[in-house]
Every structure is written in C-alpha cells, then in structure tokens.
Design goal:
This protein is an alpha/beta fold. The chain is built from eight helices and seven strands, in the order E-H-E-H-E-H-E-H-E-H-H-E-H-H-E.
C-alpha cells in the first residue's frame, strides 16, 4: 500500500524507539509530516533527523513523559504550534512491568494504567478538535494480544491493555458521527526491549519486527472505500493459529 500522505500530519507517541520509530518511518516514507513524542529528547532528535534525511519530510519533536497527566496537553500544544493540524494520531507509547498480579504495587498499577490507558484517552480527547478539521481523521491505538488472552506475570499490563481495548471500542462508536475513525492494532511478541523483559522464554528469532506492526498501522490508517477493519491482531508466525 503506497498511497501518499503528502500534506498530512501524523502524531506518534512513544516514537523514540522500537515500534514507534518504525511507525513514524512508515508514515514518513509516504510523505507525511510528523510530530514525534517520547521521554528522551536526544533519541527523539536522532529519529527526527534520520527521517528528515531519509525521506525529506518535516519532523518535529516534543519530549513528554505520558505518566504525567499534564503531558498530553503539552504535546497537543506543541502540535498546534508546529502545524495546527492533525490527520492521524497513533497512541503507541506503552510500559510493561512484569510481576504476579497480587504482588503488584499501587505505584506499578497506576503507572501502567496512566501510560497505557489514560494517556491515549487524553491525547485523543485533546486532539479531537484538530482531527475534526481533517477530511480523513484516524486514531490508531497500539494494543496487545494480552488484552484478549491474559498471561501470568503480566496482570497489570494485561489490565491496562484491556482498558485500552474497551476505550477504543467506545471511542470508535462515539467519534464515528464526528468523522473520526478509531482502530486498534494488537500485536503479540515484537522484537523490542519490552518483550525481552516480559517474555524471556520466547526465541528472539521467532519474534515479529516493529516494521510488521507499522505496516498494520498503515493498512488501517490509509483504508479507503466501504470496508474497514476495527482491530488487527498480529501473531508470531511460529505461534498456533486461532488460539
């Protein structure tokens, strides 16, 4: 799928590495202008400069820790200052802290809920005015197969991604009449530092790559015609089908 994104603006959270960087590159390859946010300004600057050099696109950055409830407002303020436009919002930033559910501290629970569920809601709400001005506005939330399956040792993370699944479904219904599409992309094991900590039992050679997730995001974001996919679940090729 090579449809152009020239003249479009895309905001990607968690863009300083892994899946977020791959998503940003996929949109840049199609000519989109980018607003990249993450917790490391140095890394954001590196990613933005690489995308400018590779794809000759505009790429702006705003450093923000989305665990801070005030951070989404700063991100959207920076977006307005740079572009005053938004066509695609990709809520990709996430955090996973392994541990038995009944041993999860309040602080660990709150942190994962804040980044994985609250931040996507706040960014979506604050960006809505700009999205409504687009003729093809899209929100893509990056979920996880854990929201459907649940895994021991990942209880709080699973709960946060299940919350993201629920809010995605409701946002999709509430925003449809406003002309904003909302989708969920839920991958299984992806070759990122997060999976190394959460699932050290998985053979790294069997993991999906961040670019695989990015292509799924592009697929839903650039969808045209009368057929849409609400959620894409991605599994490792080596895993059991239909499980």
């Amino acid at each position: 799928m090579q449809r152009t994104m020239q003249g479009r603006v895309v905001l990607v959270s968690g863009a300083s590495g892994g899946i977020g960087t791959a998503i940003a590159a996929a949109f840049a390859a199609r000519g989109a202008s980018l607003m990249l946010t993450g917790r490391s300004q140095d890394r954001l600057d590196e990613v933005a400069e690489e995308l400018r050099q590779r794809f000759d696109v505009v790429a702006e950055t705003v450093c923000a820790d989305l665990a801070d409830p005030a951070a989404p407002a700063r991100v959207i303020a920076a977006l307005r200052a740079a572009y005053n436009r938004l066509d695609v919002l990709v809520n990709n930033a996430g955090i996973a802290l392994p541990g038995a559910l009944c041993r999860t501290s309040v602080e660990q629970w709150d942190l994962q809920m804040a980044v994985n569920a609250r931040a996507p809601l706040l960014l979506s709400s604050l960006a809505l005015e700009l999205l409504q001005q687009s003729d093809d506005a899209v929100i893509v939330n990056i979920g996880s197969v854990v929201a459907h399956k649940g895994y021991a040792g990942q209880g709080a993370y699973t709960a946060s991604k299940h919350a993201l699944l629920g809010l995605t479904r409701v946002l999709a219904k509430e925003l449809q009449q406003l002309g904003v599409r909302v989708h969920l992309v839920s991958p299984g094991g992806v070759a990122t530092p997060m999976i190394s900590e959460m699932r050290p039992d998985i053979d790294a050679s069997e993991l999906m790559q961040p670019e695989d997730v990015a292509e799924a995001v592009i697929f839903v974001a650039l969808a045209r015609g009368n057929a849409l996919v609400d959620e894409i679940e991605l599994r490792r090729r080596s895993s059991e089908p239909w499980k």
